[in-house]
């Protein structure tokens, strides 16, 4: 029975339409992630209304491809220009850009790719083997257990907003307020509709997500004054590159030996990212910075961090990519998304 179920899952996952949509998603994710100011969350939110006529497997393949592709895509601009494409790639700048200035852009880029794939693979395997047993436990949950679980999730959201606990508490409170709008599912009474009939069913999920992830990001980018500063920094750094020794492609080759030299940092990032990704509200940025900090602390070459060491590229990239699969564990097991993107996946599942 189990063998038949596994074969059925594999046949569905490797069907041609699913592979095609997943490939398109990865391409879109890498493209969006490499452009500073855009993010995988924004792309997923905008594509949600377009997946109604797509099969569930193909839709999830498309969205998952965007999610995971954007994780790696952010490192492209981080390494190439010193400007992270996504917030999760900010820690990659610390060593990725110096590695490029030293004449090893290919090694830095390939290290980011391989460590991202490794971290993502580890967290996905954990998702496959852990989510189902946890979901079976969740079937026995009653009102008390679910109340404690949701309180824990709200506490984590409030506490894990780095340096901004007040904003985290405010965000959780606003979310609770929005969730109470509409008809009470238990009593049938209408709450906080203010006499507007269209609010009787609550705030529609898709417009809310598009507003939160897309419109808000556009407004932030319009209001920023640092774009010119970023361009100036890139121009100055490009001028500095002329002072370096000429780029020698023969010295900038990736090999299994180089990858193996970063395996410790990759494993540290994978473990840290998987753990943090499973916590509601933590996010990939926190995972990347904590992975970088722990890898630096445990490294025998601490003095090389910040100067272009490949370990400083591998750790944050493995960390932020490992959150992709791990953030879906609490979603599939308890219905609580581990990240903002996981919440979008929850919306996609509801639509399907």
Description:
- It is globular and about 70 Å long.
- The chain has 16 helices and 2 strands.
- A two-stranded antiparallel ribbon has the order 1-2.
- Strand 1 and strand 2 form a beta hairpin.
- The two termini are 26 Å apart.
- The relative contact order is 0.16.
- Residues 226-231 have low confidence and may be disordered.
- It has one domain (2-351).
- The protein is mainly α and 352 residues long.
- The protein has helices spanning 2-13, 16-34, 40-47, 56-81, 93-101, 105-138, 143-159, 165-179, 205-223, 227-241, 256-261, 263-277, 284-298, 311-326, 329-334, 340-351; strands at residues 182-183, 190-191.
- Helix 4 runs antiparallel to helix 6 (105-138) and helix 4 packs antiparallel against helix 14 (311-326).
Protein topology:
Layout: H1 2-13, H2 16-34, H3 40-47, H4 56-81, H5 93-101, H6 105-138, H7 143-159, H8 165-179, E1 182-183, E2 190-191, H9 205-223, H10 227-241, H11 256-261, H12 263-277, H13 284-298, H14 311-326, H15 329-334, H16 340-351
Antiparallel strand pairs: 1-2
Helix pairs in contact: 2-4, 3-4, 3-9, 4-5, 4-6, 4-14, 4-16, 5-6, 6-12, 6-14, 7-8, 12-13, 12-14, 13-14
């Amino acid at each position: 029975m189990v063998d038949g179920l596994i074969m059925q899952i594999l046949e569905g996952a490797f069907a041609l339409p699913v592979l095609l949509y997943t490939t398109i998603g990865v391409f879109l994710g890498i493209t969006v992630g490499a452009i500073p100011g855009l993010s995988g969350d924004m792309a997923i939110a905008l594509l949600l209304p377009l997946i109604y006529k797509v099969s569930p497997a193909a839709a999830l393949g498309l969205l998952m491809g965007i999610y995971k592709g954007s994780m790696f895509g952010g490192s492209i601009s981080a390494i190439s220009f010193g400007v992270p494409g996504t917030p999760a790639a900010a820690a990659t700048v610390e060593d990725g850009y110096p590695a490029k200035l030293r004449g090893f852009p290919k090694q830095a880029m390939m290290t980011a790719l391989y460590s991202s794939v490794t971290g993502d693979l580890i967290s996905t395997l954990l998702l496959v083997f852990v989510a189902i047993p946890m979901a079976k436990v969740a079937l026995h949950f009653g009102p008390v257990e679910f109340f404690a679980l949701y309180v824990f999730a709200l506490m984590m959201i409030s506490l894990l907003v780095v340096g901004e606990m007040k904003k985290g508490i405010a965000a959780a409170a606003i979310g609770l307020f929005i969730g109470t709008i509409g008809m009470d599912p238990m009593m049938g009474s209408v709450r906080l509709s203010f006499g507007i009939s269209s609010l009787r069913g609550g705030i529609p999920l898709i417009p809310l997500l598009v507003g939160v992830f897309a419109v808000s990001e556009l407004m932030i980018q319009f209001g920023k004054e640092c774009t010119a500063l970023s361009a100036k920094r890139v121009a100055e750094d490009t001028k500095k590159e002329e002072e370096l020794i000429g780029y020698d492609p023969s010295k900038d080759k990736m090999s299994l030996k180089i990858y193996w030299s970063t395996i410790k940092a990759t494993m540290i990032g994978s473990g840290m990212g998987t753990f943090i990704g499973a916590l509601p509200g933590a996010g990939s940025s926190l995972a990347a910075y904590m992975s970088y900090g722990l890898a630096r602390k445990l490294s025998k070459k601490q003095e090389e961090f910040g100067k272009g060491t490949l370990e400083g590229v591998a750790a944050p990239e493995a960390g932020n990519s490992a959150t992709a699969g791990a953030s879906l564990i609490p979603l599939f097991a308890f219905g609580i998304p581990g990240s903002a993107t996981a919440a979008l996946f929850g919306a996609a599942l509801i639509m399907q």
